[in-house]
Inverse folding.
């Protein structure tokens, strides 16, 4: 008998709307339909007949096969996802906070209840990244991952340096394009990228990584004067995440870096993201594309849903190894520091620690 897979959506913001739109289009060629959408009562008119005001209307509905969580945040979405998995419903989410902090537990719940937990859209939105990474770990060993993982900060830094506009103007422009999240300071502090590199690394090294244990050095103190001084030296500021295996440890962290204007990282601009992986047998692989936006994220969620109905969505749990985490370091690196209204180059991290400047960054060759 031909089965139609019924979908319940939790949250009708940008992502929820995008998922509803794409599933409606996909229903012409895939056995899918959105049956119910949960959100606050003020959105009932917009949603129409599919609107429900309680998640129980979705969790307790035996006809719903797949739940899409698009609420944002951590505590409430986490509880919703757990309830859905325990009710033996497949779950798809774009929620990087929930995935980063609870990946092992949620995969365990999915396995125990014979359902799938999918989260491709939680990292770099529309870039097919996590599924290829999962497949690579089956046949090769991931040695290192490095990337630009925040569309918000990449856009802000690109506009400041390419268009020579102020930090305030860059943030305002990003907000006008709906690039920033409600709390863009999470991006500036590096918390957004910490979540993402934790997810990537947990899958890459098959080890549970708690984002709270990941080294973070943000760019929240960046200013127009600092950018001008950096660029006057022929350098370009990028904000990156890195993890790599070193013996029985994982070096991992998020930090700003300065690179020459000819460096490859400079070409990754605006809302584009890139992840580079070093592998034992396959050398080096790059993944790049739009890292943010309603439709790229919604498309990634749709790809997870299609994998579910094709029964090809299994993910191993991330508890094969338990590596010690240490902050990543760049050997023989010099540092740029800015303090008391001027910038200079120092030769070692020890010099940075002595001065404790207002802003500092590694310089990569």
């Amino acid at each position: 008998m031909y089965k139609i897979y019924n979908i319940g959506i939790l949250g009708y913001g940008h992502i929820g709307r995008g998922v509803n739109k794409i599933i409606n289009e996909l229903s012409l060629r895939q056995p899918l339909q959105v049956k119910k959408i949960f959100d606050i009562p003020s959105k009932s008119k917009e949603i129409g007949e599919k609107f429900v005001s309680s998640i129980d209307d979705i969790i307790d509905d035996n006809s719903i096969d797949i739940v899409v969580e698009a609420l944002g945040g951590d505590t409430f979405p986490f509880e919703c996802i757990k309830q859905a998995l325990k009710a033996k419903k497949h779950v798809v989410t774009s929620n990087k906070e929930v995935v980063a902090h609870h990946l092992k537990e949620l995969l365990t719940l999915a396995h125990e209840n014979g359902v799938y937990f999918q989260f491709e859209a939680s990292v770099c939105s529309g870039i097919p990244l996590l599924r290829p990474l999962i497949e690579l770990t089956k046949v090769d060993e991931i040695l290192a991952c490095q990337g630009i993982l925040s569309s918000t900060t990449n856009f802000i830094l690109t506009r400041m340096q390419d268009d020579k506009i102020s930090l305030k103007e860059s943030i305002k422009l990003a907000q006008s394009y709906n690039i920033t999240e409600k709390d863009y300071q999470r991006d500036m502090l590096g918390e957004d990228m910490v979540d993402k590199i934790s997810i990537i690394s947990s899958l890459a090294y098959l080890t549970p990584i708690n984002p709270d244990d990941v080294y973070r050095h943000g760019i929240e103190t960046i200013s127009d004067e600092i950018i001008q001084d950096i660029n006057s030296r022929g350098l370009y500021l990028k904000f990156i995440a890195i993890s790599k295996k070193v013996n029985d440890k994982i070096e991992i962290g998020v930090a700003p870096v300065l690179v020459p204007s000819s460096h490859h990282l400079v070409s990754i601009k605006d809302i584009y993201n890139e992840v580079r992986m070093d592998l034992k047998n396959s050398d080096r692989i790059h993944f790049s594309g739009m890292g943010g936006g309603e439709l790229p994220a919604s498309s990634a969620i749709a790809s997870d849903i299609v994998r579910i109905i094709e029964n090809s969505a299994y993910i191993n749990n991330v508890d094969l190894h338990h590596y010690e985490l240490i902050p990543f370091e760049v050997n023989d690196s010099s540092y740029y520091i800015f303090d008391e209204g001027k910038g200079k180059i120092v030769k070692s991290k020890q010099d940075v620690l002595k001065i404790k400047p207002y802003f500092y960054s590694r310089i990569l060759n």
The chain has a mean pLDDT of 94. Residues 251 and 329 are 8 Å apart (CA to CA).
